[in-house]
Every structure is written in C-alpha cells, then in structure tokens.
Write a structure and sequence with these properties.
270 residues; 2 domains; Arc Repressor Mutant, subunit A; mainly alpha
C-alpha cells in the first residue's frame, strides 16, 4: 500500500507554493489537451505538496547538475499528466495514480542524468565483490577503512564509490540499473494474495533485520533514524553531533553493506 495518506498536512512556505504553482501552470499550459476542467485544476493544486514531498525524498541521490527544483519540475509534469489522464472508472484513487505518475516522472529525470563513468562502475563492482568475500569470511561487513585499504584507494575515494552506488541502488528499486543489485525485486507486494510471495516477503524482512544488526553501530543508527524515525540528514547530524556530510557518508556506506548482504541471501550464499 502506498504511503500517501496525510500528504497535504505539511505546510509549504509562500515562496515554495508560488514556485510550485508557477511550474504547474507552465507545465499544464504545454499540454496538448485544450479543455482544462475545474476538477483537474483542483487536483493539481491539491496534490502539489505530494510533488514536493517525493522530490525531497530523492535529494540524497542527486548529482550535479540536478537540483531539487529539477525534481519538482519533473514531478509536477507527472502530476499534470496524471490529472489529464486519470480515469475514475478504473476504480483507483487519484492519489495512488498521481503518486505513481509523479514518482515515475522524477525517476525518468534521474535516469537521464544517471551516467556513471566506466572507472567508477568498475570500482563499484570491485568493492561489491571484495565486500562479499569479507562478509562471507567474517559474517559481518568490512569496516570502511579495511575495505578502502584492500581496494588500494583512499577513504575519500571509497565514500565517492558508495555515493555513486547509492544512486544506482535508488534507481534499481524500479529495476532500471542493470549493474546494481535490484533490491526492489526482492520485495513482493505487501497486499499480495499469493502465499509464496507472503512467505518470501516475511523471509526478506527477517533477513533485512539481520543485515541491519550486522551493520557497524553508527551505520545502524543512521539507518534507524532515517527510515524508522524519518529524520532528515540535517536532523540526524544534530542528534549524532556530526556533520551532515558525514551522515550522508554513513548512510551510503550502510546501504552498500545492506545491498551486498541481501544480494548474498538472494543468491543463496547466506
């Protein structure tokens, strides 16, 4: 079930709302459909905060020249098209349909800029392979310093590797990154009626919990604060009394280790 309830409760500043409305009007005026019903206009205005919410969720994965405003613009186009194309006779809620179209538009924008140089892609693969070997031997992921040393790179280069891998993992939730572990493919739908899928989902949740337990303490703290408590990177930095950039490094490192362990489980190695 999509978590789209209460999407309009978070207030936007006057400047943010003005920007979103301007973007929406520009996008809407560019559509070929000439008839703009009051219902469509109302839907666009009502769900603009959802665009901003989804856009903020991907900020961590952005690389120059992309910005938050680029994500908002892409998501707004998705919302406009959702309002234009929505067919209530299909017995689907508009907010669910809008969520899918907004997220899809933002992912499309990310894919357009997701090119990773060949040397970085090779480094990601090497890091994944070495991390798997160490995890199999020790039962826990390697420390960042240990992995960097064995790869023959600096710790700064390792974090750059993690951050590029994190962007690939995010896109892989839609199965769009061929070289990265498609974590999303491990997640059967929560409301599936297939008993096999329900069992697989329950097993995945258990393995994910185990993988989180295996993380180093600070990585585990970041994951719990970010996903369970839904704190921002800035808020986590304040809680942990470290810089926001360090939180981002720990987050990227944690996701890398979780992905490696879940891939091992999927491949039948754990």
């Amino acid at each position: 079930m999509l978590e789209t309830d209460n999407i309009c409760e978070e207030p936007l500043t006057q400047g943010s709302r003005k920007h979103l409305n301007n973007v929406a009007l520009r996008a809407y005026s560019g559509q070929k459909k000439s008839v703009k019903s009051d219902a469509q206009n109302q839907q666009i205005a009502e769900f603009l905060p959802l665009v901003h919410k989804i856009a903020r969720q991907v900020v961590t994965y952005l690389k120059p020249p992309l910005s938050l405003e680029d994500m908002v613009s892409a998501g707004t186009v998705g919302l406009v098209r959702a309002a234009r194309d929505f067919d209530p006779s299909h017995q689907a809620e508009f907010k669910t349909y809008a969520y899918i179209r907004i997220k899809g538009a933002i992912l499309d924008e990310l894919r357009g800029w997701s090119f990773v140089p060949a040397n970085l892609s090779k480094r990601i693969r090497n890091a994944q392979q070495l991390s798997r070997q160490i995890t199999e031997q020790k039962g826990t992921p390697p420390a960042d310093a240990e992995l960097a040393e064995k790869l023959g790179i600096t710790i700064e280069e390792l974090y750059e590797t993690f951050e590029n891998a994190r962007a690939q993992y995010f896109l892989s939730l839609d199965g769009s990154a061929d070289d990265s572990p498609a974590i999303g493919s491990l997640l059967p739908a929560a409301d599936t009626s297939d008993p096999h899928h329900r069992i697989e989902r329950a097993e995945l949740i258990e393995k994910l919990a185990q993988a989180i337990e295996h993380l180093h303490a600070r990585q585990r703290q970041v994951i719990l604060l970010y996903y369970q408590q839904e704190l921002t990177m800035k808020q986590i930095a304040a809680v942990m009394e470290i810089t926001e950039s360090r939180v981002s490094q720990l987050h990227a490192s944690a996701l890398f280790n979780l992905s490696v362990e879940l891939r091992q489980w999927k491949d039948g190695r754990l």
